[in-house]
Design goal:
2 domains; seven-stranded mixed β-sheet; binds S-adenosylmethionine; Small_mtfrase_dom; N5-glutamine_MTase
């Protein structure tokens, strides 16, 4: 069959469910993924014809798109920052808002490291004046950062941090063994070394000597009452354990992670959260009686309260 005919079938079959531009993007993502064909192929070879074997995965993807299965689960892959990650229905599909959270941590951490470097090399300079080829103190030893990602899912946060902070020791924790399996594969395919922990954060049993400099979490935060605002493709296909919390106690994970951080975050260590946009002030208030300072709420690119940072006293 002609490729352009298959494109028309995509539009005919999906036209009542998705906008035209989205159907185009599904179609081009499918031909790129299954057939390694660029999206401009139809412009340069309008008569391109596929064999039955080549058509088959496109029609299979079409049937799943009709059921509103997310394209990332159909293709089994997605992008997060500059990473390619494997995803399946055991893990949440990483969201762009979470990229903003990771970028916040990277900006803070990189500027923190250069401050420490310049302070230390300044002091040392007075005494020895020894510099390496980059102008840094040759004897300067900065101990590696220990970072923990709680509720790692696909591993997106932990892997992006490990990739961008190659000197850090990164750990990632999840209650779901199936999610950890996916995260492990993603760590391998992206060439990073991560310590995985299978734990329930609501009842964590971690050695008290394990202390982190940065703890980050995007825990489940969608209330049952918000379910009807959520699109069918999220509700029907993404894992409930990754998404939902009870209406009567929507911040249970935040409370547990703050308590955990009282024990496992170093002095001046930083805690970062992705949060429910409707519960920004309530989440911030959880820190009122806690041993934290400089609580900062931040909005995402859509203008919603989405991130929070706190520093352990
Ligand atoms: C919102 S998803 C975030 C996944 C990933 N970090 C991301 O940003 O895309 C929340 C994750 O928390 C995990 N989770 C749920 N309950 C948990 C618990 N009690 N202890 C540890 N992890 C839990 C889920 O399995 C899921 O992977």
């Amino acid at each position: 069959m002609l490729l352009k005919e298959i494109k028309n079938i995509f539009h005919k079959e999906l036209g009542t469910i998705y906008p035209k531009e989205e159907i185009d993007s599904f179609f081009y993502a499918c031909i790129e993924h299954y057939l390694k064909l660029e999206r401009f192929i139809l412009a340069i070879r309008p008569g391109i014809t596929l064999t039955k074997e080549e058509e088959q995965p496109l029609f299979e993807a079409l049937s799943e798109l009709k059921l509103e299965k997310p394209l990332q689960y159909i293709l089994g892959t997605t992008h997060f920052m500059d990473l390619e990650l494997q995803v399946d229905e055991n893990v949440l599909i990483p969201r762009p808002e979470t990229e903003e959270l990771v970028q916040w941590i990277l900006d803070d951490t990189k500027s923190g490291m250069s401050e420490v470097r310049s302070q230390k090399s300044g002091v040392k300079n007075l005494k020895s004046g020894v510099k390496d080829q980059h102008g840094d103190d040759a004897n300067l030893h900065i101990s590696p950062l220990n970072i923990l990602d709680i509720g790692t899912g696909s591993g997106c946060i932990a892997i992006a941090l490990a990739k961008n902070l190659p000197d850090a020791n990164v750990f990632a924790l999840d209650v779901s063994e199936d999610a950890l399996l996916v995260a492990r594969k993603n760590a391998v395919s992206n060439g990073v070394d991560i310590g995985f922990l299978h734990q329930d954060i609501l009842n964590a049993q971690l050695d008290t000597t394990l202390v982190f400099d940065v703890i980050v979490s995007n825990p489940p935060y969608v209330r049952e009452l918000e379910k009807n605002r959520i699109q069918k493709n999220v509700k029907d296909f993404e894992p409930d354990t990754a998404l939902f919390v009870p209406d009567e106690d929507p911040l249970l994970f935040y409370r547990a992670i703050i308590e955990f951080s009282e024990k496992h975050l170093s002095k001046n260590g930083k805690l970062y959260f992705e949060i429910n946009q409707y519960l920004g002030e309530e989440t911030k208030a959880l820190f009122n009686t806690r041993n934290f300072s400089e609580i900062e709420l931040r909005k995402d690119i859509f203008g919603n309260d989405r991130m929070l940072k706190a520093i352990k006293k």
